[in-house]
Design a protein that fits this description.
With about 270 residues, the protein is an all-alpha fold. The protein contains nine helices and no strands. The protein has one domain.
Length: about 270
């Protein structure tokens, strides 16, 4: 019964660690996207003419700021939900992770579609903004789910390649200029492959972190079991010695002095 209670407690602590990691990820995303928006604003302020030589209107920069605001609001809701509804999160945390990853990647893809549709320019697909996919892929490691990291990278690759193929075909009859660059298969397929490989690499990192946490957790549990077993009968120094040399079965020989007191005629009263 006691072992069952401890196992349940360990499971709850592990789930709490997962929830804390997910909340931390949401906070990092909020901070990173906010920082990205600030730097984009600074770059736009100093390079406005260069921006207008690539985009014929301001829809792209406005859309990016709107997207940043939407994602920050979304991640704030996720952070609040996990904090208030932890029990619901624990029951469906794997499904929640996939839904969350799909929402984030798809929102970014919809941003690019929105910019292309309203500016009539596919140049955004060759802009640094597409590198934002990597931010979501890297931070997916904090979910400690290798499959989820691979899913994030794979979804980003599929969506990016999909819209690139669609708009490269749609604008194939347009004259090639700064506003309508030539989207070649080598470019978008190459970036798509890198996105997928990044997801796989993030999966390996997530798996390694998860294994390290599991090993540390098992070590702590084993230590607690030994302390519970021997802690009340022997000194803490001996318990620590057992923990340090748990693979050694040899004893320790020491010189000791035993002192006792003999009281005459005391034995019959025992």
């Amino acid at each position: 019964m006691n072992a069952t209670v401890k196992s349940k407690k360990s499971s709850e602590l592990y789930n709490a660690e997962i929830a804390g990691s997910e909340r931390l990820r949401a906070l990092i995303l909020i901070g990173m996207l906010g920082l990205e928006a600030i730097f984009l604003m600074i770059i736009y302020f100093f390079y406005r003419k260069e921006y207008l030589s690539v985009f014929n209107n301001h829809i792209a920069i406005y859309a990016i700021f709107i997207f940043t605001a939407v994602i920050i609001i979304y991640e704030s809701i996720v952070h609040h939900f996990i904090g208030k509804k932890r029990r619901v999160f624990f029951d469906r945390w794997s499904l929640f992770g996939y839904i969350n990853a799909f929402s984030e990647i798809t929102l970014l893809t919809l941003l690019f579609i929105f910019i292309i549709e309203y500016s009539d320019q596919p140049v955004i697909l060759q802009a640094p903004a597409t590198l934002t996919y990597f931010l979501f892929i890297v931070l997916s490691t904090l979910r400690l789910n290798p499959g989820l990291s691979v899913f994030t990278g794979g979804l980003a690759a599929v969506e990016f390649i999909g819209i690139s193929i669609y708009y490269s075909t749609l604008f194939s009859n347009q004259p090639i200029d700064n506003f309508h660059p030539n989207l070649t298969g080598m470019q978008y397929l190459g970036q798509g492959v890198i996105l997928l490989i990044s997801g796989i690499a993030a999966g390996f990192v997530a798996d390694l972190i998860k294994k390290k946490i599991t090993v540390s957790w098992n070590h702590i549990e084993e230590k607690n079991k030994i302390i519970d077993l021997f802690g009340q009968q022997i000194s803490s120094q001996i318990v620590e010695s057992i923990l340090e040399k748990k693979d050694e079965l040899s004893g320790v020989r020491k010189n000791v002095c035993v002192m006792f007191l003999d009281i005459r005629n005391f034995t019959p009263f025992v």
